[in-house]
Specification:
Multidrug-efflux Transporter Regulator, Chain: A, Domain 2, 81 residues, alpha+beta, 3-stranded antiparallel beta sheet, 4 helices, 3 strands
């Protein structure tokens, strides 16, 4: 099921050249404005298509603009040190 004006995690990942998990992490951490996790749709993220398009046009990708958040459990442990 789709919600008009939004894209799925996998669609956003393809558009930005990032992994699905990176997009989910960006959603959780507020990096993607307006992303909402819908309980009604099985907890899936709905991401505003215009925000992703703006990020794509700006050149945002997992390679160029990774947010300052830990990716792995070992990196998370380092943050706590």
């Amino acid at each position: 099921m789709t919600v008009e004006g939004t894209v799925t995690v996998s669609q956003a990942a393809r558009m930005l050249g990032a992994s699905n998990e990176t997009i989910r992490r960006w959603c959780r951490n507020g990096v993607i404005p307006g992303a909402v996790q819908h309980a009604r749709y099985g907890g899936t993220w709905r991401i505003p298509a215009d925000v992703i398009e703006g990020m794509r046009l700006k050149g945002t990708s997992a390679v160029t603009d990774t947010p300052d958040t830990p990716d792995t459990p070992s990196e998370m442990a380092e943050v706590g040190d």
